[in-house]
Amino acid sequence: MGKYFLKRFGQMLVVLFLVTFFVYLLLDLIPGDPVYAILGNKIRPEQYERVYKELGLDKPFLVRYGEWLSGLVQGDFGRSIYYKVPVVELLAKRLPITFFINVIVMTISTSLGIWMGIISAVRRGSKVDNFITVFSNIFACVPGFWIGIILVYFLAVKLQILPTMGFTWPWEDFALSVRQLIMPILVGVLTSLSVMTRQTRSSMLEVVNQDYIRTARAKGMKEKDIIRKHAIRNALIPVITLMGIGIGFIFGGSPIIETVFSIPGMGNLLVSAIGNRDIPVVQACVFIMAAVICMANMAVDIVYGLVDPRIRVK
Amino acid sequence: MRKSKFRRFMDTLFSRKIVMVSFVVVLVFLVMAVLAPLLAPYDPYEQDLMHTLQGISSEHLFGTDKYGRDILSRIIYGSRISLIVGVGSVLIAFVIGSTIGMIIGYFGGWLDTVVMRITDMMFAIPQVVLALALAAVLGNGLWNLTFLMSVGAIPGYIRMLRGQVMAIKEQDFITAGRVIGASPGRLMFFHMLPNGFSPILVFMTQSVGGTILGEAGLSFLGLGIDPPTATWGGLINEGRQYLLTNPVYSIAPGIFIVLLVMALNILGDGIRDAMDPRLRGQH
């Protein structure tokens, strides 16, 4: 197990290293002179020289990348061009908000999705199955931001029972926090639930057709016990992988959800940083999202290895 | 007389009513996009500042926007963007991804290792975030948008084709081709690609809907195509500020997105089931 863990950890580091290179290279390719982007066009040549040096643009690409990477390893993401503060300061405020919301969404959507997927597979062809299938097919086609706006229209504008936007930590004002969180979490769950449900259903259906399930039936085991003791346990293994995908999906949805509800999280920061051409912030946000997803996938693979010894051997 | 393979495929495909309906819906959207200038009741760019933000009326079915432009006409024109980006980016991803995938699957070696690590990296970045980062680099515009939506899908095609080529390349008909002197390129494009094409086609049809959703998301964030061009995502975003005066402004374009994406998804699933009936109802 230790060896497997180390191997997986090494793989993750390689991928993360590639991500840093990719992110740096990509954003270095942005057309236009960053000096003009920061200071505007009406600057004196001396000013231009100074900022040009300050940004390290007189050095070759690989040197700049090396400096950026060594800063990153020490937790220094550079300075935001737009906000004029270290990027870490921005992230320190915004990352926890995104995490907080996404963890809640993730918890609700996985547990609900697995539950719905199992019911749907066990009662295949029944009314419940049809309902769940239609429900998840519909929500797979609906843009999250549109659901968000419709919710805002009905709950906040028409009925005026929820605030339209914003974010408050629960320990600052619990009632307000809950009221502000309802809509973003609902949107997050509704858009990610169908992925979870469909995956659980299909992996459960695959298991139900296996020989050992037939054997269990043949020896006269009760259907309930077959499902609980044999089917679910085996079907949940691929579902663990799904949680890795789910984390990516939910984090990928953050920029949109946080924009719709004006939540000052990392997704919102990323979107506004792109608008402001604030490259250090964009780099940091993309890197952190990739890092979170890589770590989640690693954790998933390790849990997978613990649950199913066959994986480790492969 | 024995039915041709294609006929049999079409018969199975349209044996289910919902697939038939979806096919018709997709066709309607295609016609709408192509014939937009004929179908749209007004010029989508013509401003009428005397009649801004009107609600539903007989003259303007979905009302008018903040510049007095007819929302229905803008939605009709918006279908062009969604379809071009949706279909275009799937095609681009297929061409780039399958070429790379076949090459690394055929030749293997260090190139294979390097490319596979790069795909690992791309899978680590959520598609939306990847598209956002690329949007920062490429800037706005129809072709940029189409390209950046395709990038996130490329690794999927690379892996798929690589796997297929690796499975096929040792088979007799490929060896035979090699023996009579066919070049690797010929073997790849004329023998391996057609041989494993049906799962790819299924994957492509199933991903158009998702791509359209992604495009709508980017347009919503203002990172797609610059105004005054009408996009569905952009319309929803504009309408957000006028929920109180004209909620249809935001709601109507969304209904079009949902309809088109749903029809495309059902059609995609239908094509999968018709190609391999064993898979029906599994996913």
| CATH third-level topology of the largest domain in chain A | MetI-like fold
Assembly classification: heterodimer
Radius of gyration of chain B: 22 Å
Number of strands of chain A: 0
Based on Cα principal axes, name the global outline of chain B: elongated
Number of helices of chain B: 13
User: Which superfamily, in CATH terms, is the homologous superfamily of the largest domain in chain A?
Assistant: MetI-like
What summary fits the major beta sheet of chain B? none
CATH fold descriptor of chain B: MetI-like fold
Annotation, overall tally of beta strands of chain B:
0
**Which sequence of SSEs, written as H and E, runs from N to C of chain B?**
HHHHHHHHHHHHH
Number of helices of chain A: 13
Average of pLDDT of chain A: 83
Task: Report on the architecture of this protein.
The complex is a heterodimer of chains A (314) and B (283). With 314 residues, chain A is an all-alpha fold. Chain A has two domains: 72 residues, no CATH class; 223 residues, MetI-like fold (Orthogonal Bundle). Chain A contains 13 helices and no strands. The mean pLDDT of chain B is 83. The longest helix of chain B is centred in the first third of the chain and has 37 residues. Chain B is elongated. Helix content of chain B is 71%, strand content 0%. In chain B, 46% of the residues are buried. At the A-B interface, helix 1, helix 7, helix 8, helix 10 and helix 11 of A face helix 5, helix 6, helix 11, helix 12 and helix 13 of B. Chain A: Belongs to the binding-protein-dependent transport system permease family. Chain A: Keywords: Cell membrane, Membrane, Transmembrane, Transmembrane helix, Transport. Chain A: It is a multi-pass membrane protein. Chain A: It is found in: Cell membrane.
